[in-house]
Every structure is written in structure tokens, then in C-alpha cells.
Amino acid sequence: MLLNLGGFLPTSTLCCTSVITTIRYGTKRTATILFKDPGKQDDILDLEKECDMKKFNSYTFMGQNRDKDHGVREVQVRVPSELLKVSYTEFNQY
After folding, report:
1. Local structure of 91: helix, strand or coil
2. What are the domain boundaries of the chain?
């Protein structure tokens, strides 16, 4: 499992994500969906909620439709991982 996060990100030996997904330290498991259309408001998801987790999966894992443009530029995930917290703290000291 990636960073021991409970397996909420898709994994496969094949290409399975449909958008650039960055993972950073945060105090809660959240995701911010950044859209290509500047007129569309970013979507902030609470990944502890099942309904938001379903939306997150629809943005990040397109399965057979991964070549389809769904209008998302980037997904920014924040998780309370000690490994990310240490890296974030050390990086920001410079």
C-alpha cells in the first residue's frame, strides 16, 4: 500500500489513473479537485465520507475510459501521514 494509507488510491500493473494526483501532508484525508475550466469552482472532498470517496474515485480512476477527458486538471490529496509530515517540515526549512 502506498504510504500505508489504507489503499484508497488505485493501484495496478497497468496505467489506471486518469489525472495527475499529488499527495501531501494534511491533518485530515481530503482531496481538492482542480478543473481545467477556470470558471468551474474547485471541488473539496472529505475522504472520510463515503459519498465524497465515490466522487474521488470517479475523478481519479476511469478504468476503461481513461483516455476520456473529464475536465480535471489535477487532484491534490492531503493525508495525515507521518512520513509526509516529516518530509514537508524538512523541505520547508530551506
Report:
1. helix
2. 2-91
